[in-house]
Every structure is written in structure tokens, then in C-alpha cells.
Amino acid sequence: MSSRVGLVTAQPGADRHYVGLSVAENHETRGGTASRHDPDIQTIQRDSMGMHKKVLIVEDSLLMHKIYEMALKGYAKCDIEAHFAADGQQGLVKLQEHPDIDLILLDVNMPTMSGLEFLRRVKSERVFKDIKVVMQSTEDQKEDIARAMESGAVAYLTKPFNTSQLHELLDSIFTDADQSSEPA
What we know:
Residues 1-49 have low confidence and may be disordered. By secondary structure, the protein is of the alpha/beta class. It is 33% helix and 27% strand. It has helices spanning 62-73, 88-97, 115-124, 142-150, 163-181, and strands at 2-9, 17-24, 29-30, 33-34, 52-58, 79-85, 103-107, 132-137, 155-158. It has one domain: 3-Layer(aba) Sandwich (Rossmann fold), CATH 3.40.50. Helix 4 (142-150) links the parallel strand 8 (132-137) and strand 9 (155-158).
């Protein structure tokens, strides 16, 4: 037995999103968040000419997983291989499995390990310290943003955000990364 849940979000001037989720009887969820026992690898790949980037999304909301999946599928500048983790602990495991991640999209408020704690641990590891990290949260207080940036984030995205905001941010991050990796 399964059920479907749908959500439409729209703000004045924002893209309109519809996200549908199927919840199977044996699929464990807690309060609308991804369980640590959920399958944590969902790879999004599009066929396109050009660069290939690996993105790790560390987010406890199943709805946000779907929103990111749809937004990344719509990003036309490069192929994106996305890996999902439901919390900071899973995120650290994913980084060990995929040390060539180009970008981390990281929720601030998660169970098990906060996004800030995850960020600090990533930035303290020599092998991961250069990975670009974008923090995202419903919190938009200046102190929260400053704390994220001081901890090593390159950007802070406030939820809800629209697809074009995410795509512009990806353009900026991937363009900067590609220019800094070119020989002088």
C-alpha cells in the first residue's frame, strides 16, 4: 500500500514548484524527515555536453531532497551527480566514499549532527577543506549567517528559495571553481 503527498509552493515572482512524494508502507519516516535507514544514494545525472560536477546534499527533509533533485535536473550548465545524506553522520560517510565531491549543500538544523558541526568537521580535514559548502536554512538572522560564513561556508541560502536562485548560485560557484583550477 502506498499514498501520495503533493505540495505546491509559490511566492510572488518565484518559480512554481510541485513536488509529489510516494510513501510506501515499509518506508520509514519520522515527522516528514528522512530516516537514517532510508536509502541514501540517489544519483541524478543528465546527459549534456560539458563539465561534470558531484554534489552532496546533506538534508533531513524528504521534501527538500525532492526539491533539490528537481532543481538539479533543471540545471543546464553541466551534468550533476547528486548524492544525498539524511544527516551529518551520513554526510561524513558519503564524503569518505566520494572524496571528489565538488559542492556540499548543507542544512543547518538536522538531527544527530548540526550542519555547523558537520561544516567544522569537514573544514578541519585536510582532504575536504577545499570543498565549497553552501549552508541553507529557514533561519535568516545575521548571526546565523555570520556563524556559517565564519565556519567556512561560501554562501548561505535561505529557505524557501526558488530554482533560479539556486541555479545562479551554482553558476557562481562552479565558474569560480573552474577559473581557480585553470593553470596560470
